[in-house]
Write a structure and sequence with these properties.
218 residues, mainly alpha, elongated
Amino acid sequence: MWYSPLFWIAVAFIVFWALGAYNRLMRLRSAVIQTFGGFDAHTQRLLTLLAELTAAQAAGRATAVMPQAQADGPMTALEGAAAHFSATLATARTRPLHPDAIAALAAAQNNLHACWSDTMHPHASPATPSVDESQVTAAQPPGRTPQVDETPGSMAVSPSAALHSVMPWQIRWGENVAHVSHALEVFNDAVRQYNEAIAQFPASVLARLFGFKAARGL
């Protein structure tokens, strides 16, 4: 039997198959890492935008974005969310195939988006009912400008002025989020292909033998 040509043909077939299957798993694994790098690059631009907003707030230009008194709380939360997201991103960058690291990053990302929404919509609080600017203007006597709150630490900003002031930041945020979302889809697709490959028999046997473990999408 040991000298049978069929036996050695079978051995050669198994060896070549195993080599090809291993190389395929390695390519798919590398694709997950590479696509995470693309997501990471776009996310860094998002963090840069948040840093610019924080710098504008600290430099006293917050009233160009939103009233200071209403911005302080949400901005503090946004800064904390950005710092936490940056930390989890750094961890995931070194372990993009580790499910726990990606799960923590996903949670931090959701929190960051929630904090951004709270910061850009300070009037959305249930305790602060929305007011139509036309109603405010109509309530003023003819020829008289609307009254403003001159309380220290507060600056009254009309709804239209507030909208125009936050619009550039929202546009830049939306553009960056669109790029991040596309990179996220590419990463999740790479994760899906990799997970399907290591779960498919007989490649699953090879995956267990060489320690290939399932990854997690965002």
